[in-house]
Amino acid sequence: MSYEAVIGLEIHSELKTNTKIFCGCATSFGAEQNTHVCPVCLGLPGVLPVINKRVVEFAIKAGLALNCTINKFSKFDRKNYYYPDLPKNFQTSQFDLPIAEHGYVDIEVEGKTKRIRVTRIHMEEDAGKLVHSGNTIKDSNGSNVDYNRTGVPLIEIVSEPDMHTAAEARAYMEKVKSILEYIDVSNCKMEEGNLRADVNVSLRPVGTEKLGTKAEMKNLNSFKMVESAIEYEIDRQEEILDDGGHIAQETRTWDDGKGITVSMRSKEQAQDYRYMPEPDLVPIITTDEEIAEYKKNLPELPDARRARLVDEYGLSEYDAGIITNSRAMAEYFDDVVAAKVDAKLAANWIMGDLAKNLNAESKTIESSPVSADNLAKMIALIEKGTISSKIAKKVFDEMWQSDTDPEKIVEEKGLVQITDSNAIEKIVDTVLAENPKPVEDYKGGNAKSIGFLVGQVMKLSKGKANPGVVNKLLKEKLDK
């Protein structure tokens, strides 16, 4: 039987605030365990929470950027459950009146655009971090708890089950990450847990509407992990159904080392969290005027920026999509083309040599040794004909090592392109004299052999000869 996967994501994003959601403890990552704590975030008796205004502002910005309706009346609730990383035995979250609802995100997969609906966005506090003795909770003999993360502000972005492939789920999460980075409400450092997802996967026979029994995978904190876990889970459920079995409703965890999902706990029935309104926090009232002001102050978002790069600079949809996928890369590109250099050439260098070097050294574009200003200067040298594209690669490598001004590198290394026709002609004559076989092949109708001769001229000139002049002189002499 053929099955269709039905996939929904709950994305948890830590907000970029200096202090926690209900107290003044620091949110910075990497501190010694259990040092960023106080009576409020530890849930000690007799304490009262106070909402961090910045959290509400960031949540509203996220809602607007994800095309949601902002609820003018919103409130906090207590979500009651017991787990070691939750010292109060309840999580302060939002239930029936979240800050934002009914949004959407447009994604592109295999050249097709698809709209993924966003059910809701709500604010909540993060729980602590369990530090297991093994690789996962299943193979651990014990666990410790670090409460530094308790009370760090989160927004949870809940999608409708509109995705049907792992690629769609990855594209959706990548798009949400990009938008949150653009509006600067989250660091989105997945390796630090700033952005992670709970993924729900179920299967149903193709052509039917009834949803199958879902399995939930918790705390996936990389795009590759999300994609791999979904692909594995689809295969696992399909095999069970084909064998006549039934899917258990359960929570599973991803074992990255083994490349499999592992059962954590059964969810035979919907868990009753016994939600109740949080009595210690006042409701959040947001006026139409405030919402309009937030909307007016949103920055240019990825889709709008992508369209601008296509219209303003003539980039292809693909190139513009790559450039605008990251806010940092888009701003780097804008800084380069602000120097009035060719935009397509700038895009090629950014997506090519720059991206390759960044990936090789696991650097972000923010920490690039080659500044946007120096890359623009190097591209200008190419456009003026001072250096060739081949020489430019040598210049770029030098800049990568030292971020030196490219004009200085060209001068010190003697890399100025040879454009003098007389000087190049002498090299061409030497190459023709030393390579009679390719010359004979060309005259016999093998036009491709001229490529070998061009390469020999460039080799003899140490890459300095102007390729255009080389090609012109060779053709003139060969066609006589």
TrEMBL record:
InterPro entries linked: Asn/Gln-tRNA_amidoTrfase_suB/E (IPR017959), Asn/Gln-tRNA_Trfase_suB/E_cat (IPR006075), Asn/Gln_amidotransferase (IPR018027), Asn/Gln_tRNA_amidoTrase-B-like (IPR003789), GatB (IPR004413), GatB_C_1 (IPR042114), GatB_Yqey_C_2 (IPR023168), Gln-tRNA_amidoTrfase_suB_CS (IPR017958)
Transmembrane domains' residue ranges: none
Entry annotated with the keyword ATP-binding: yes
Boundaries of every Asn/Gln amidotransferase domain copy: 331-478
Pfam families named in the record: GatB_N, GatB_Yqey
EC top class, as a word: ligase
Keyword terms, alphabetized: ATP-binding, Ligase, Nucleotide-binding, Protein biosynthesis, Transferase
Keyword Repeat attributed: no
Catalytic activity: L-aspartyl-tRNA(Asn) + L-glutamine + ATP + H2O = L-asparaginyl-tRNA(Asn) + L-glutamate + ADP + phosphate + 2 H(+); L-glutamyl-tRNA(Gln) + L-glutamine + ATP + H2O = L-glutaminyl-tRNA(Gln) + L-glutamate + ADP + phosphate + H(+)
GO BP terms, alphabetized: glutaminyl-tRNAGln biosynthesis via transamidation; translation
EC number from the UniProt entry: 6.3.5.-
A molecular-function term among this protein's GO annotations: glutaminyl-tRNA synthase (glutamine-hydrolyzing) activity
The protein's assembly and partners: Heterotrimer of A, B and C subunits.
Family of this protein: Belongs to the GatB/GatE family. GatB subfamily.
Role description: Allows the formation of correctly charged Asn-tRNA(Asn) or Gln-tRNA(Gln) through the transamidation of misacylated Asp-tRNA(Asn) or Glu-tRNA(Gln) in organisms which lack either or both of asparaginyl-tRNA or glutaminyl-tRNA synthetases. The reaction takes place in the presence of glutamine and ATP through an activated phospho-Asp-tRNA(Asn) or phospho-Glu-tRNA(Gln).
Name listed for the protein in its UniProt record: Aspartyl/glutamyl-tRNA(Asn/Gln) amidotransferase subunit B
Species for this entry: Pectinatus brassicae
